[in-house]
Write a structure and sequence with these properties.
binds magnesium ion; 156 residues; Rossmann fold; binds guanosine-5'-triphosphate; Small_GTP-bd; GTP binding
């Protein structure tokens, strides 16, 4: 039986505008997907309860704005993060190349106690587009498997 104690884990989703951060969060938490694009303004979070082995966790998942003009709320909410999900669009090399900037900015603002071992999850989205024919980012699957831990079951 699961322990009654819940551990809060703060997860931050970062990546370029339009890569699908909001869609991923809605799919993961509410099992809902919309084709319409509505840019995220600032940041907002949803929570999801998950059980791992005999422990219960509350994931506090922060969805952030990819558009620079909507990042005005600042990055105060980066602080105290337990994990950061870096999202790219597999059909956009630019969105993949920019992840290094997102990662560096995150480490500066969140200033985790052990930056070298901070858990980042790399997530390539939109694999369905054009039946996979538009895909430009190819990464070794072992690298992705190593990076994925929390979001490995987005379609659950
Ligand atoms: N085909 C396809 N479209 C997707 C997928 N994920 C998201 N989209 C679409 O891509 C567009 C952008 O998705 P969002 O989730 O709003 O992107 P975002 O990263 O939150 O964008 P910002 O809020 O501006 O940072 C929307 O029209 C979504 O419907 C996917 O896996 N496949
Ligand atoms: Mg969004």
């Amino acid at each position: 039986m699961a322990s009654r104690r819940r551990t809060l884990l703060k997860v931050i989703i970062l990546g370029d505008s339009g890569v699908g951060k909001t869609s991923l969060m809605n799919q993961y938490v509410n099992k809902k997907f919309s084709n319409q694009y509505k840019a995220t303004i600032g940041a907002d979070f949803l929570t999801k309860e998950v059980q791992f082995e005999d422990r219960l966790f509350t994931l506090q998942i922060w969805d952030t704005a990819g558009q620079e003009r909507f990042q005005s709320l600042g990055v105060a909410f980066y602080r105290g993060a337990d994990c950061c999900v870096l999202v790219y669009d597999v059909n956009s090399m630019k969105s993949f190349d920019n992840l290094n900037n997102w990662r560096e900015e995150f480490l500066i603002q969140a200033s985790p106690s052990d930056p070298d071992n901070f858990p980042f999850v790399l997530l390539g989205n939109k694999v369905d587009v054009d039946g996979g024919n538009s895909r430009v980012v190819m990464i070794d699957i072992h690298f992705i498997a190593f990076s994925m831990n929390i979001f490995s079951g987005v379609d659950c």
